[in-house]
Amino acid sequence: MAILELKDIHKSFRDNVVLDGIDLSVNKGDIIGIVGPSGTGKSTLLRSINLLERPEQGEIQFEDITIPLPLKSKDRKKVTELRKRIGMVFQRFYLFEHKTALQNVMEGLITVQKKSRQEAEKLALEALENVGLKAWQNHYPRHMSGGQQQRVAIARTLAMRPDIVLLDEPTSALDPELVTEVLTTIKQIAEQGYTMLLVSHEMDFVSKISTRVIFLDGGKIIEDGSPSEVFRHPKSDRAKEFFEKMNKLKEPDYFI
Q1: pTM of the model
Q2: Do 20 and 219 contact (CB within 8 A), yes or no?
Q3: C-beta separation of 152 from 141 below 8 A
C-alpha cells in the first residue's frame, strides 16, 4: 500500500520546466533509486516531496495528509507535519560548526520534536552508533572528515525517526576515497527497513541497493521498474543512450 503519492506535479523556474506532470507512488519499504542526466529534475523532485521546492500544480498525499498545490496559507500546518515525518540528507552536510556531533544530532529532537534533553541525548547516541560514530560524539565538524560529517548528517535524520528518508546526492561533495564509507552507511540503514528515495550518480550502488529505479529526463519519468529492467533492459531510446554513455565512461582508454 502506498504511503506517499505524487499526482501531476509541475515545477518550473521561470521558463524552464523542471518537473512536467510527475506521478509517483511509493510503498512502505521501497528503496527507490532516481537516476538520469544532470539538470533533469532529480533533486527538484526530492525537494518537492517535502516542499523545500513548491510546485505550481499537483497534489501530495502522505498517509493521512493531503496537500493540494500550489500551497495555500491554510495548509502550513500540514507542511510542518509532513516535514516531521520525512527526513532529508543533502549534498552538503549543513552541520552547526560550533556544536559537537552529538549536539548536532540532538538539535532537531529538541527544537522540532520538543524532546527533553535526556531523551534527545539517548536517541542521538543511538543514531550515532547506527552510523558508526558514537566514539566521535564530542568532536566538532572541523575535526571530522567529509565522510564523517555526512554520516553525522545521516544520523541527525535517522534520530528523528522519519517514515521516509530522502537522500540527495549524499556523496557528491566528498573526495572519492570517502565515498565508500558513506555508501556503506546508506546500505546498512536500507537493510533496516527504511523507505528511501535516493538521487545518486553512483550507478553500481543504485543498482545494488534499490528495489526500484526511476529514470527522469526532461522533467518526466520515462522508466520505472526493477534495477535489472531499467539498467539492463530500458524501454526508451533516451535511457538506452544514457546508459550506453555511462558504460563507455567506465571502459579504460587503453590496454597494456
Answers
A1: 0.92
A2: yes
A3: yes
Q: In what order do the strands lie in the sheet with 220-225?
A: 86-89, 164-168, 195-199, 31-35, 212-217, 220-225
Please state, in angstroms and rounded to a whole number, the distance separating the CA atoms of residues 38 and 41.
8
CA distance 221 to 206: 17
Q: What is the pLDDT of residues 169-208, one digit of tens each?
A: 999 888 888 899 999 999 999 999 999 999 998 999 999 9
Report helix, strand or coil for 194.
coil
Per the listing, cell 526508451 goes with 236
Q: In this structure, what C-alpha cell is assigned to residue 157?
A: 535524520
d(CA 80, CA 66): 13
253 residue type, one letter: D
Taken in order of first residue, the domains within the chain and their CATH numbers are: 90-193 (3.40.50.300)
